[in-house]
């Protein structure tokens, strides 16, 4: 499910995650128009693609759709990270390189996360 997003896809998803409620194409368009000129049909097409990619769900509301995120931004990011790790070829080496590049703040966040969810703590 975790696929790379284009610039407009990312902008729309950021908006959807930020508002944390179902939204129409018009709702998203009004926000996007604050920073640029963009056509309704462009936003509609991109939101349809995000639905096809499994990032947005939708329900019919008259002649339009109301869209909602399928998962949180954090869950999406975790999916992208796992997909990248799976495609790396050498997971251990990739993880070592990742850890080498962590900032002190990121290392602290990782330590805190491991306290909440220790390795091997997953129940099946």
UniProtKB/TrEMBL annotation:
Pfam family, one: Penicillinase_R
GO biological process annotation, one example: negative regulation of DNA-templated transcription
Keywords attached to this entry: DNA-binding, Transcription, Transcription regulation
Gene3D superfamilies: 6.10.140.850, Winged helix-like DNA-binding domain superfamily/Winged helix DNA-binding domain
Keyword Coiled coil: no
Domain of life assignment: Bacteria
A single MF term (Gene Ontology): DNA binding
SUPFAM superfamilies: Winged helix' DNA-binding domain
Keyword Amino-acid biosynthesis carried by entry: no
Family as reported in the entry's similarity comment: Belongs to the BlaI transcriptional regulatory family.
Annotated protein name in UniProt: Transcriptional regulator
Organism classification: Bacteria, Bacillati, Actinomycetota, Actinomycetes, Streptosporangiales
